[in-house]
Amino acid sequence: MTSSDDAKDNLKPTKIWKCKNAECKAWVRDEFAAATEQQCPICKGPMHRSMRHLPPVQKKAKSQPRKPKSLF
């Protein structure tokens, strides 16, 4: 098994918004979309829902609050 096979195995079906304009290649993951009716960020045209096989987004761990520096 090669590294490209490993990458393909890691892909998950993901909901996206895709630009309806054939010349525009813009798309955005549904989880990062702001509203239910999308406007393309590139050409300002309408967008529609679609699916793509993408790697999952890695969620950042919440950072621990820093302890205040000692004055001594």
Automatic annotation (TrEMBL):
The lineage of its organism: Bacteria, Bacillati, Bacillota, Bacilli, Bacillales. This is Cold-shock protein. Pfam families: YdjO. It comes from Paenibacillus soyae. Residues 46-72 are annotated as: Disordered. Residues 59-72 have a biased composition (Basic residues).
